[in-house]
Design goal:
The protein has 350 residues and is mostly helical. It contains 20 helices and no strands. The protein starts with 5 loop residues before the first helix and ends in a 9-residue tail after the last helix. Residues 1-43 are annotated as: Disordered.
């Protein structure tokens, strides 16, 4: 497999239009930040031994550690030359670690990605690279016209690679960072990139699933604003239901107060999910809440609550109770559908 030399990398970076070449400053920074004293010869011996291990998980972990150490010692090009040549898990992991640890300038990164031989490897490279950038650097890179053109070309062979790479890097930060500030910064970036269309709904949902920086009410503020109309059966709809149930578990009256703020059809579904959750936990408390709160609900919301109790009664094998709740539903179509589902002996419509 052909490798790109340091000189070739610098020349390509210097000649790339649009991206400010920071190859030389990146090299100086790497030299000043050396944090390991491993030599290339030592690394070759360690890699040779590690690659004999039949346990691929252990082999991969050992190899990426050595690649990372070489980068930390300032031997970036040597580390690049020692990456596993054959495709597979070990090479994929080494690429992620290299692009995260090498301290490459954008021009250097692009030159290397453009020379990767195997399909789909740009994802691993970008995933690692974005994991190394702070929010300001990430935003600057995404806004650069030359980087946008680079991504446009990548999309021809690997559609959506940018969103997938950013999603993976932000999910990793949320899952493994020990700093609450870093996690919140990653979450804020996810919000921004989802709003800008860099991340699709599915990718954004995966990031939110890894976010443990707040409670269910904090997450609800994100979900309700960023994913107002999740498709039925989608990951976003599943996450929304999980967050609703988390809020009800924590403080049911407060949760329903929040859900009652959601308008339209989605508000109907959200309130239905919240009341059903509370009704399963504490049916008498949920029913009491409805009696004291119903005057503050609009007719669609009252239908939602009635439908929730109707479904709870059916699930509990209480057809008479279900029939009573069906009678509370004002929407003619909903009421007709509810009555049709009643057992025959309890299906006399009021």
């Amino acid at each position: 497999m052909d490798r790109v030399s340091s000189q070739e990398t610098r020349e390509k970076g210097a000649n790339r239009n649009g991206l400010t070449d920071r190859s030389e400053s990146a090299r100086k920074r790497r030299d000043s930040e050396k944090s390991d004293d491993i030599t290339p010869d030592e690394a070759r011996k360690l890699l040779s031994a590690a690659r004999e291990n039949p346990d691929i998980m252990r082999r991969s972990a050992d190899c990426i550690s050595i690649i990372g150490r070489l980068c930390a010692a300032g031997y970036t090009e040597e580390a690049w030359s020692m990456i596993e040549e054959g495709p597979g898990q070990v090479r994929d992991s080494e690429l992620v670690r290299f692009f995260k640890a090498a301290g490459l300038s954008p021009a250097e990164m692009i030159s290397k990605v453009e020379n990767l031989p195997y399909k789909g490897e740009a994802f691993n490279a970008l995933r690692g690279y974005f994991s190394s950038l702070d929010p300001a650097s990430t935003s600057a890179l995404l806004a650069d016209p030359s980087f946008k053109e680079f991504i446009r070309k990548l999309d021809e062979s690997s559609p959506g690679v940018l969103g997938r790479a950013i999603s993976a890097s932000l999910t990793g930060r949320l899952a493994f960072s020990g700093s609450t500030a870093e996690k919140m910064a990653a979450r804020d970036l996810a919000m921004r990139y989802h709003a800008d269309g860099v991340l699709n709904d599915g990718q954004f949902v995966q990031i939110l699933k890894a976010d443990e920086t707040g409670d269910s009410f904090d997450k609800w503020a994100l979900v309700a604003n960023a994913l107002p109309n999740p498709g039925r059966g989608s990951d976003a709809a599943t996450l929304r239901k999980d967050v609703i149930e988390g809020m009800v578990n924590a403080d049911a009256p407060k949760a329903l107060q929040q859900l009652a703020k959601v308008p339209g059809r989605q508000g109907f579904l959200d309130l239905l999910a919240g009341v059903k959750k509370w009704g399963n936990m504490d049916p008498s408390a949920a029913a009491q809440w409805f009696q004291t709160s119903r005057n503050g609900l609009n007719q669609t919301q009252r239908d939602s609550v009635a439908m929730a109790f109707y479904q709870l009664a059916l699930d509990a094998g209480e057809p008479e109770g279900a029939e009573q709740w069906a009678g509370e539903i004002s929407n003619a179509q909903l009421k007709q559908e509810a009555v049709k589902r009643l057992p025959k002996k309890a299906s006399s419509e009021k």
